[in-house]
Design brief:
Elements: H1 5-28, H2 38-51, E1 55-62, E2 71-73, E3 76-78, E4 102-104, E5 108-109, E6 116-125, E7 131-140, E8 158-160, H3 164-168, H4 179-182, H5 184-197, E9 200-206, E10 211-216, E11 219-227, H6 228-231, H7 253-268, E12 275-281, E13 286-291, E14 296-300, H8 301-306, H9 309-313, H10 330-341, H11 345-356, H12 369-391
Antiparallel strand pairs: 1-7, 2-3, 4-6, 5-6, 6-7, 8-14, 9-10, 9-12, 10-11, 12-13, 13-14
Helix pairs in contact: 1-12, 5-7, 10-12, 11-12
């Protein structure tokens, strides 16, 4: 199972919503009789505070978002907070929507302590189901329980644009021969030996600045910088113990040399658009490429080897692969994904089933195919993480 950063965040938020929402829903039911008694409300919140072990602050607002209680923390109630207007805080925006009874804010940096925080807001209703206030609880993000799932880099090709000033002046420049360029074959042979026989599992080769950065399996938390003095001297291999090819490597040993030779080809194929540095990690199989336009690409080694120079430098002067990709409004799409995920596991699975059958759900009728694909893959990955531990569907 692959967990990207966004999938892991969304799954963790879903887990926290379930945990906090269920707790605060029960707590809010005890508050209506106390809304007209600030001192009694503070006393009750102090009792709730001891039950909510993870919270930092707890308070109550009226239906207009004005704080009617003190802000209760581990030191007791802060009465100066009474009357504070929280209606325009970002975590309140969702609460004014119809049929919204609980909201978990996006993470933010707290005003006072400057710590990553979350705010949970629960609607307080009277006996007729009418909204009469809100229960707010602030949490220190670092102290909340985590699923212990660590995200992994996505497997698909990633393109990251660089400095627009460099890109704008691209055709006013040309490659200047570096010291590494003059000794390129010897330098690449040294890198191949270090990876195949000397336990180096990750390299970054900086062709323009004539240096390399390497990581060794015996000391993976520390990187080492090799200048041309070391790189043109085969004796560098004597500085590292002989190691069999790393057992966690997914790049076949025979492909390491092919990858390095492809780096060489990209370095010399064009005098205007050329490779500035290339990286290879044999454990996750990732290739990193940074070109003279300052654009950076990350892709899997097998996909990299499958592309010839005609792919990178095909079509007049500008590489096809460096052309801007179709832009997606990720903020809009992520908000849509959050909205769809809030409908619950059953509804999300129905939506995924329709998309898999190439049917367009009504809620996605106005979206392009690329946008629907993005929504599908994000929701599918979140559900893959989430269902095993929570939904059980």
């Amino acid at each position: 199972m692959t967990y990207t950063l966004k999938h892991t965040i969304n799954a963790q938020r879903a887990r926290l919503k379930d945990m906090l929402g269920n707790t605060l829903s029960q707590d809010a039911k005890e508050l209506p009789p106390l809304l007209g008694d600030p001192d009694g409300l503070d006393k009750h919140l102090a009792e709730l505070f001891t039950k909510l072990e993870l919270c930092k602050y707890i308070y109550v607002l009226d239906a207009q978002g004005i704080q009617v209680s003190s802000t209760v923390n581990r030191f007791g109630p802060d009465e100066e907070a009474r009357g504070r207007n929280r209606s325009d805080r970002p975590y309140m925006f969702e609460m004014y929507k119809e049929n919204c009874y609980f909201s978990l804010s996006e993470a933010y940096i707290s005003r006072n302590k400057k710590r990553p925080s979350l705010t949970a807001i629960q609607t307080i209703c009277d006996g007729h189901g009418q909204r009469i206030g809100f229960l707010g609880v602030d949490y220190d993000l670092r102290e909340l329980p985590h699923s212990e799932v660590i995200y992994e880099e996505p497997s698909q090709w990633r393109q990251i644009k660089g400095d627009p000033a460099i890109r704008g002046g691209l055709f006013l420049q040309e490659r200047v021969e570096s010291l590494m360029d003059r000794h390129i074959d010897d330098v690449l042979s040294v890198h191949e030996a270090l990876m195949l026989d000397q336990g180096v599992h990750h390299v970054q080769i900086h062709f323009s600045s004539s240096r390399s950065t390497i990581w060794h399996v015996d000391d993976p938390y520390v990187y080492r910088i090799l200048t041309m003095d070391e790189l043109i001297n085969p004796n560098i291999c004597l500085a590292y113990p002989r190691r069999t090819y790393f057992e966690r490597a997914i790049v076949p040993p025979a492909e390491v040399g092919r990858i390095l030779r492809q780096f060489r080809a990209l370095r010399f194929a064009d005098e205007t658009i050329y490779l500035r540095y290339g990286s290879l990690n044999i454990v996750n199989g990732k290739i990193g490429l940074n070109f003279s336009c300052d654009g950076t690409h990350y892709l899997n080694y097998d996909e990299f080897l499958a592309k010839g120079l005609e792919f990178w430098f095909g079509g007049q002067h500008f590489p096809q692969a460096l052309a801007p990709a179709e832009a997606l409004d990720y903020a809009k799409l992520d908000n849509k994904i959050e909205e769809l995920a809030a409908r619950g596991c059953v509804q999300v699975n129905k939506l995924l089933y329709m998309l898999e059958k190439e049917e367009i759900p009504e809620c996605l009728q106005d979206y392009t195919q690329g946008e629907r694909d993005y929504v599908y893959h994000e929701l599918k990955s979140v559900m893959d993480v989430y269902e095993g531990g929570v939904c059980g569907i």
